[in-house]
Amino acid sequence: MHRMLWVGWRELFDVLRGSTPTHHRLRSRIFVLIVTTLIIDLICSLIIWRFERHAPQTDISSYGDSLFWTSSQLLTVSSSLKNPISTGGRILDVLMELYAITVVATLAGSFGAFLHARGRERDAAEEKQEPEQAGGISPAAGAAPGPRPG
Which pLDDT band, with edges at 50, 70 and 90, does 36 fall under? Predict the structure, then answer.
């Protein structure tokens, strides 16, 4: 258990440093998702505030309310504020939810691709170490010679 925990922390630090091309690729993908989501959050907050600020019976009356609401929607958790009342606000809500689902799927795919690539890298490293651990003799070196090509 402790070894797995240590390996997990080491992988996390390797991603943060971009130790290998695989780690760097995952770090770049996560960075793009975070920056894009922050930009979309700020823009959608402004748009929803413009749609909802004068709507009757809305809970979104300030930019702070709209920023809280859009951040909650993009994090795919529900907020304590009511959903938008205006048509534009409702359309934006649906688009933000689609974006949030896409980000979650992209993130899952990125982690899956990362884990697959790391598994292949580890397999290649283990295969390279096996002949060295056997005294430097590869399995093919001790085999009987086959027929010579003609």
Answer: very high
Task: Round the average pLDDT of the chain to a whole number and report it.
Answer: 84
All structural domains of the chain, each given as residue ranges with its CATH number in brackets, are 29-119 (1.10.287.70)
User: Which residue intervals of 53-86 are DSSP H helices?
Assistant: 63-74
Query: 75 vs 16, 118, 130, CA distance in Å?
Result: 22, 28, 46
